[in-house]
Amino acid sequence: MDLLKLKDKNVVVMGVANERSLAWGIAKSLFEVGANVIFTYRKERSLAKLEKALESHGYEPKMVVQCDVNEDESIQHAFTLIGETIGTIHGIVHSVAFAHAEDLKNDFVETTRSGYAFAQDSSAYSLIATAREARRYMAEGGSIITMSYLGAERVLDGYNVMGVAKAALEASVRYLANDIGKDGIRVNAISAGAVRTLSAKGVPSFNTILGQIEEKAPLKRNITQEEVAKMSIAMLSDLSSGVTGEVIYVDAGYHIMG
Fold it and tell me: Which residues form a coiled coil (predicted)?
């Protein structure tokens, strides 16, 4: 019995930076369950890394489309191209977040107006714009998931403006879930624990955070890219058909500790 019901379904994966990306781990799992994977990329540098990863694993994506999440026209063009080519979109993995390096390194109070706006636009508003453009091609309903982090609700050293952007992202998940639930579209966030990704390198205290999690988390360890992927597959699949507007933690239980 196929409980996942993802075979031959069309799923858009946004935000693969390299093979350490959470988005890449999810994409691998989607290939393994027989889904049709459509990738978006922001810049040529990302495309080159994506193509290298696909070639090394022998994966054949359904489509690869350029999409700059900071530009409405680019998002609209990307999803129009995807929708008109494949017909129906069944799922979206939004794994996109950007902030200026200086706004992560400096004290939060020193965040610039432009830096704040950029982090919010890239990391939170991009989900709203994506859902708006994809919605018309999700005629059979489906699932949208985005990637969050504990810094959305707690102060974590070095996360700063990105924590505030992730808080906005999680609030956006709830409002979007309410708006498009009537269309059968579910919207949830995966709050992943610390994983050595490219974006994690931008957090100055990242190595310290890894050590704290191993010491304090109920499972006494950090989580893996594969564990995030497994939960993401569940949230994209029919297994989570009654779940929307939620933040699902995959962090070895660290978030429950005082």
Answer: none
β 247-250/36-41 pair status: unpaired
Radius of gyration for the chain, computed over Cα atoms and rounded to the nearest angstrom: 17
> pLDDT band at 202, cuts 50/70/90?
low
Q: Give the model confidence (pLDDT) of 74-97 as tens digits.
A: 999 999 999 999 999 999 999 999
Cα(226)–Cα(143) distance, integer angstroms: 20
Strand, helix or coil at 134?
Answer: helix
Burial pattern 1-23, b for ≥16 Cβ within 10 A else e, equals: eeebebeebbbbbbbbbeebbbb
Query: Which has the higher per-residue pLDDT, 203 or 227?
Result: 227
CATH fold of 10-251 reads Rossmann fold (3.40.50)
pTM (two decimals): 0.94
Residue 178 has pLDDT above 80, yes or no: yes
Predicted local distance difference test score (pLDDT) of residue 258 = 85
Write down the domain spans for the chain: 10-251
Mark whether 159 is an active-site residue.
Answer: yes
Q: From its phi and psi, is residue 5 left (phi > 0), alpha (psi between -120 and 50) or beta?
A: left
Question: Which residue is catalytic, options 149, 175, 249, 254?
Answer: 149
By CB atoms closer than 10 A (0-12, 13-18, 19+), residue 154 is exposed
Residues with Cβ within 8 Å of 9's Cβ and at least 6 positions away in sequence, in order, are 35, 36, 90, 91
Q: Which of 159, 175, 249, 254 is catalytic?
A: 159
| Beta-ladder partners of 89 | none
pLDDT number for residue 1: 57
For residue 72, the SS3 value is: helix
